[in-house]
Design a protein that fits this description.
Keywords: Membrane, Transmembrane, Transmembrane helix. The chain is mostly helical. The protein has one domain. The chain is built from 9 helices and 2 strands. The relative contact order is 0.18. The N terminus is likely disordered.
């Protein structure tokens, strides 16, 4: 696999980075509109599963931060030939991103129609349990490869700090809330958390980034950017 050399120190943002960001941001917004307007057939494609325009505004504003955390490092359409752009940013990015926008239908097909909350996880049937186990194995395998690549790029310590620190923070908040609330990890949360970590210039990392980005966009546009903690009384 091809792996670009990445230094410990962050480089200045170039004009190529801004061009890449512009194209990527348009892709992000297109994905949101496609799910809301085409797949969900809403009259107003700015609206998610929640009323109002809050979720669209958050996607549009938070997107740039996530781009410079992850996609900036491996999404470089301005630095390659037309053939490379088609191969890297077409086949390895646009295609898996577009497929992930159809997660609702893919989930139906493979039996993944369950949520990551305690009540659902305790009542999974054998098919759903198998799907969940396979998904966990895939994520662990992806992260194992990426930890190796982070080590080679001399960014292992900050990489693993954020990778482990965010789940630890979520766990700590859940412990503090205690029995009054329960944790519900929406699939948009999982996608938005993981995709910036898939930041290396190789096929596997690009495909993984695009897939989890599509998963996040689909979840937000279809269902809305709902909270992760819910009152146990309303369970």
């Amino acid at each position: 696999m091809e792996l670009s050399t990445q230094s410990r120190n962050s480089q200045a943002v170039s004009r190529g980075d801004w061009l890449a960001f512009g194209v990527w941001w348009i892709l992000l917004i297109f994905g949101y509109f496609y799910v809301a307007g085409v797949l969900c057939q809403r009259d107003n494609p700015f609206r998610s599963g929640n009323p109002g325009f809050r979720d669209f505004v958050l996607v549009a504003l938070v997107g740039p931060l996530l781009f410079f955390a992850g996609p900036r490092h491996n999404w470089k359409p301005a630095r390659f030939s037309v053939r490379d752009i088609f191969r890297w940013n077409g086949l390895c990015y646009l295609l898996p991103f577009f497929l992930a926008l159809h997660w609702e239908y893919l989930g139906d097909a493979i039996g993944a129609q369950f949520s990551l909350k305690p009540a659902d996880l305790h009542s999974l049937d054998s098919r759903a349990t198998t799907v969940l186990a396979v998904a966990v194995c895939i994520v662990i395998t992806l992260l194992t490869f990426h930890l190796v690549w982070a080590h080679r790029a001399a960014i292992l310590y900050p990489y693993i700090t954020f990778l482990c620190g965010i789940p630890c923070l979520i766990w700590a908040i859940t412990i503090v809330l205690g029995d009054s609330h329960y944790l519900h990890v929406h699939h948009y949360c999982l996608g938005a958390f993981l995709f910036p970590f898939f930041r290396f210039r190789n096929f596997l990392s690009l495909v993984a980034q695009a897939t989890f980005l599509g998963l996040a966009v689909e979840g937000i546009s279809r269902w809305g950017m709902d909270p992760m903690w819910y009152s146990a009384v309303a369970r």
